[in-house]
Amino acid sequence: MAATGFASLFFYFCILLLCHS
């Protein structure tokens, strides 16, 4: 589903932000 894909993308983005910090 699109909702699941969006949630996965958001989670990936959060990981990137954490790694950058």
UniProtKB/TrEMBL annotation:
<protein>
    <submittedName>
        <fullName>Triticin</fullName>
    </submittedName>
</protein>
